[in-house]
Amino acid sequence: MSTADSKNDNESGVGNIKTNILIIGGAYAGLSAVRCLAHHIESIRMDSVYKDVLTSHEINITLVEPRCGLLNILGIPRAIVDTEFARTQYVPFDELEGVQFNRVLSESTASSVRADANAGKGYSLTFVHGKVTYVDEEKARYELVKETGKGREGTIAFDYVVVASGRNRSWPTTPLGYTLDSFLREMGGSKKEIETNDIITVVGAGAVGIEIAGDIKHYAPSKTVNLVHAHKTFPPEPLSREFQDLALDSLVRSGVNVHLNTRIVKELPGGDLQTVDGNIIKSQLNYWCSSHSNNIDFLADSLKKEFVTPKNNVLVNEYMQLLNKAKKLQHFFCIGDIVELPIIKSAGWAMYMGRQVATNLISLMLSNTLVEPFPDLSQMPRGMVLVAGNGEIVSELGGEIELNHKGYSQEYKDYCMGKIRATIGV
C-alpha cells in the first residue's frame, strides 16, 4: 500500500493517546472485536435513532499488538517445518480486507495506512505496534516494538478496554513475529534446527504437542520423533476415550514414538531427557509443549488481586466484564484464552467472544444496556479437531468422532486461515 497518504508516527515523543475503546491484542479475539466494532458503527450511522449521536461524535478505536499482522497460531506446527507454508500464515495488517488503520504508531514503517481510510464512517482506527506494559481501570502504558534495544513509550487513556492478549507458550510455538520478515526468519531457524537434528522429542501431548509431533514426522519422515506425555491418555481436554485412542493410533501409525505415563525431570547436556524413574530418552532437539501462561502480567496489582484466579485466569461475567463476588467493572472486558470459563479454548471461541463483546460494548455506549450474554454452556457440545499423524484429521463434535472428516480436511489445507479470515471479515 502506498505511504503517500499515510501517517506513521515516528517522531520523537510518542506521548499520550486518548481513545474511547482500547483493544489489547490483535489475534483472533482482538481483531474480531475491532472488525465487529467498525461494522456496528457503520451500520448504526444508517439508523435514524442513533445517527445524530455518531455524526457528532467519532468513536476512536486503538489496537495495541506487538505483531504487525494476523498470525494464524493454528498453523505453527506445520510452519516450523515448511517456510513456504509459513508465509501463508501471516497477513500484514495493511493487507487485510475489512480493517484499515488511519494512524500507526511504530518504530518502523512496517505498516502503512491511508490517513483518510475511514473518513465519514464514524470511527477512526489507530494501530500501536507495541506491547502493553501496564493497565489499570483508566489507562494503559505501552512500549513500541523495536527488534534491537528499547522502544519508545507512551500512555493511553481509555473509556472502555478489551483485553484479548492470549496465551504464551515456549518458542517456536509462540513466535515473536514482529513483522512478516522476522516471523519467516524465526520459522526458517526452526526448520534448520529440525533438519540438523536426527532425534526430536515433543514433551506434552496437548493439542499443540500432538500436532507438532505429527507434522514434524509427516514433513521430515526420516527423523526419529518422540512424543512424551505424563498421563495414560491424551489430549487432556474432556473428550471421549474413542477420540483420544484415534489420535494415538494415528500418531503411532505415522511412526511417532509415543511414551505415555512418562514424566521428564530434566534435560541433559546434548538433549537427552531423564525421566522420574531414571530412564533416559535419547534426544537431540526438544520442544516443550507441557505448559502455557496467560499473557496478563501487565494488569495492575489491584486488578490481579481482585479478578485473577490462582490458575492465572481472569474472572468475568456472562458479558465478559471483569466481575468478582463484590465488584464489577462495567467498562473493562476480557476475552479469549485468558478468561475463566469451562470451555475448550480455541480460535473459534476467541472470535465469538470478540464479536460478542463488540456488540455489547456498542450497546453500552449508546443506551447503557448489555444485549448478548455468553451462551448456556450446558447446551453446547464440546469438540476438537486435530492434525495427527500422516496429516490425518481427527475430530469430535457433538459425539461424532471421525477420521478425515471431509469438511475439516478441506479447512485444514490452510490450517483454517481462510475460515478465520472469512469469520472475522478480514
UniProtKB/TrEMBL annotation:
Pfam families: Pyr_redox_2 (PF07992). GO terms for cellular component: cytoplasm. One of its GO terms (molecular function) is flavin adenine dinucleotide binding. Residues 20-351 form the FAD/NAD(P)-binding domain. Keywords: FAD, Flavoprotein, Oxidoreductase. It comes from the Eukaryota. InterPro entries: FAD/NAD-bd_sf, FAD/NAD-binding_dom. Belongs to the FAD-dependent oxidoreductase family. This is Piso0_000139 protein. The gene is Piso0_000139.
